[in-house]
Amino acid sequence: MREVSVKELKNTATQMRMKVVDMIYKAQSGHPGGSLSAADFVTACYFKYMNIDPKNPRWEDRDRMVLSKGHVCPIQYACLATLGYFPESELDTLRKEGSMLQGHPSMNKCPGIDISTGSLGQGLACAAGMALAGKMDKKDYKVFCVVGDGESQEGEIWEAANTAHKYELDNLIVFVDFNNLQIDGTCDQVMPNGDLGEKFKSFGWEVMEIDGHDMEEICATLDKCYASKNGKPKCIYAHTIKGKGVSYMENSCAWHGVAPNKEERDQAMEELTAQLV
Amino acid sequence: MSELKKIATRDGFGEEILKLGLENPEILIVDADIGKSCKTGAFRKELSAEYHDDKNQYVNVGIAEQNAAGVAAGLATCGKIPFVVTYAVFGSLRMCEMIRQQICYPNLNVKIACSHGGVTPANDGASHQAIEDMGVLRTIPNMTVVMPADYNSAKKLTKAAAETYGPMYLRFTRDAVPQIYDENVEFVIGKAHQIQDGKDVAIIANGDTVRLAVEAAKVLEEKGISARVLDMHTIKPLDVEAVTACVNDIGKIITVEDHNILNGLGSAVCEVAAELGKGIVKRIGIQDQFGQSAPYERLLEINGVTVEEIVKTAEEMQK
After folding, report:
1. Transketolase-like pyrimidine-binding domain: which residues (chain B) (predicted)?
2. CB A133 to CB B74 under 8 A?
């Protein structure tokens, strides 16, 4: 864990958002909405909490990050590039032929990716496997996992939730990115999830409900997760806004997987720059 | 060989994996509630945290195969060598996309080791008879697909699987099958094992049908037809060199498999012959139809997977 102020983390999250918008603009392809909704807690993990070494991406004692909702990888790529896993110029190659930055994350192409994801509902099981290996080897690394509310409609999420409970994986910290939007509409329209926090609780998890854009609350909650060694896997049920930080993208299904044009990109950059404190 | 008792290849797997697990603490079993019938009971007893404070090589995720594949992938990224164990139908089809996305695409060292291959779960009926599994999995990049013929080769190939990096599908029989090999025979993944040489016809078989090929070759010999018999335990990567030699040396090939004739061993051999532009291949296997509850031997018979059919086909090919 590093000493970083909340203010600094807020600014970093804004800078990550700018990189996300810019790389998706340059690629003219990608998923801005979810990348922006997950930006604050992913930034907090990478820049304050995760015990990692960009020069040794496969270091066996490192903390792991699994994006079960793999399509939001632009936010992860922005963090990894900024931390020095690869040159920032690589961000301009997103989704282009030969790039290490695939449309969905590939662990054998991009340093810092702990598992390839992209098919929804599958990441939590992998994260549970990593956390289980940590328990078996008596290592104290953490495994972070970002799960979408939409993808929680997949049954495998709940199979994995069972496994994490059975094996007492309190080294597993899951963020549920609760932005209530998926491709065809709101989650409530497409397939109501009910209260996902209550669901995880009933699976034996320790659940903490937060504002997923309040950096202070994100950090306080992660501190709590680190202190809690009660055998329960952790679920941080984060209320978020899809497209957060860019006015015209906020709460809009249309910005799930669409790239901004030049004017839209410039407006986003202007708005985000104004959010730096 | 007829004096030796019949034994299911899943038993060979169960014995060998215990031995390997005792030697290498990174080797794990990931069960999905059917460990008992997949022969992981001894492994669990010896290497599970349930029974030993200092052992932790056994995981049971319950009836949740998709999750089993994902958990195994996560374990493999941390240096473990997990063997996911279930029935062939579930280990190939229920887990198929997880195998593709979380195991094969990242090329992780996960083994899917399945009992109940082919029509060997006979009385269970069509739901439990895996006739598409090897074909489905051989189309996924990075995957290796293996079916041993008998007890000793199951042990040898399980050991080879543990020592070979990468995603691998191992398919075993539920039913007891005759023993073909003694414990000194060696097997290399991706290399056909030639049981006997011959000049008039090549019989290429795998798994529980290798015994049929061996018997058919004996009958053919009495009829003056000399058969080369290959145990093609690995259908991917296929031993193209061995198939090419059959095409060039003999030109008449019969494939035999306890699998749909579509996309399994027979198809793989046809692909080689077709690209060479010569030779003739006749496929014996499950006739693209679902099974039913019936005795194992009877199910093979319904599909023409018999010694008589191999002999008849070989004779016709001589005309």
Report:
1. 7-179
2. yes
Question: Which of B3, B50, B65, B301 is flagged as catalytic?
Answer: B65
With bands split at pLDDT 50, 70 and 90, how would you rate the model's confidence at B1? very low
Interface ipTM above 0.85: yes
User: How much of chain A, in percent, has pLDDT values that exceed 70?
Assistant: 100
Catalytic, B65? Answer yes
Count CB neighbours of A263 within 10 A: 8
Helices A6-27 and A215-227, packing angle to 10 deg: 110
Q: Diameter of chain B by CA atoms?
A: 68
CA distances from B262 to A156, B265, B270, B275 (A): 30, 9, 11, 18
Whether B179 contacts B151, CB under 8 Å: yes
The answer to whether A136 contacts chain B (CB < 8 Å) is yes
Mutation for B interface: A61, A113, A120, A132, most B CBs within 10 A: A132
Using CB atoms and an 8 Å cut-off, which of residues 92-151 of chain B contact chain A?
97-98, 101-102, 105-107
Which domains can be identified in chain B, with CATH numbers? Answer: 7-177 (3.40.50.970), 193-318 (3.40.50.920)
- Percent of chain B whose predicted confidence (pLDDT) is above 70: 99
What average pLDDT does range A87-105 have in this prediction?
98
pLDDT of residue B3: 66
Q: Which residues of A touch B107 (CB under 8 A)?
A: 108
User: pLDDT tens-digit profile of A3-44?
Assistant: 999 999 999 999 999 999 999 999 999 999 999 999 999 999
- B72 inside 8 A of chain A by CB: yes
CA-nearest of A267, A194, A257 to A36 is: A257
Q: What is the pLDDT of residues B35-44, one digit of tens each?
A: 999 999 999 9
**B144-146 vs B111-115, strand pairing mode:** unpaired
Terminal-residue alpha carbon distance, chain B = 32
Per DSSP, the three-state class of A42 is: helix
Q: Are A31 and A118 in contact (CB under 8 A)?
A: no
Q: Which residues pair with B205 in a beta bridge?
A: B231, B256
Question: What separation in angstroms does the CA of B109 have from each of A59, A221, B167, B169, B235?
Answer: 18, 35, 5, 11, 19
Query: Shortest Cα distance from B86 to chain A (angstroms)?
Result: 16
- A192-219 pLDDT per residue, tens: 999 999 999 999 999 999 999 999 999 9
